[in-house]
Write a structure and sequence with these properties.
mainly alpha; Four Helix Bundle (Hemerythrin (Met), subunit A); 5 helices; 0% strand; globular
Length: 180
């Protein structure tokens, strides 16, 4: 793809920056809403779906890494776009769950408690950070700016993989405390 004109690049950067701030702020605001919307009991399955999505995302990230190491750019692109799509579905599902259900308190005791909270806090912080990197990496790849894509992915890949894996671990740690 030909190089983008400076104006197009500025617009893309602005959109990425706005989304990177707007998404975490919107999620935080939605999590803070005390009055939940009643869409029915089916929404209680969403954390389980989210764990599956996070698991599949982690697998796709590793497969995408494998494909790029093998030089299979087409398979890498498809795999990474699937991971990006799953991330988007996860975000919608996560917000929908927290709009309709109270947060589940962690009931673990002893040594597991600080482990859980360390994983949870690092997961949350890095899930905020990774939005900017992932949007930028996808943008650079789709606009043909492969050198910039590679530079961005040095950070995006390990952070995104960590967020996906810790999301599943946190789910398994809190799952016994969900009320159905």
């Amino acid at each position: 793809m030909e190089a983008l004109k400076p104006v197009q690049e500025q617009k893309a950067n602005r959109v990425i920056n706005v989304l990177s701030i707007a998404i975490p702020v919107a999620v935080a605001v939605l999590l803070g809403i005390r009055q939940k919307i009643d869409l029915g009991s089916w929404t209680t399955i969403l954390p389980h779906l989210n764990a599956v999505i996070n698991s599949l995302t982690a697998i796709l990230l590793l497969i995408g890494f494998y494909f790029i190491r093998q030089g299979n750019i087409a398979a890498h692109k498809r795999t990474m776009l699937m991971a990006f799509t799953l991330g988007s579905v996860f975000l919608v599902s996560y917000v929908l769950y927290h709009l309709t259900n109270q947060s589940t308190p962690f009931g673990g005791k002893g040594w597991i408690r600080p482990v859980y909270y360390f994983l949870l806090v690092s997961h949350i912080v890095l899930s905020i950070v990774v939005v900017w990197f992932v949007l930028r990496a996808v943008y650079y790849a789709l606009s043909g700016q492969i050198d910039k894509h590679k530079q961005t992915v040095k950070y995006a890949f390990p952070i995104w993989l960590y967020v996906s894996i810790t999301g599943v671990i946190v789910y398994f740690l809190i799952e016994p405390y969900y009320i159905y």
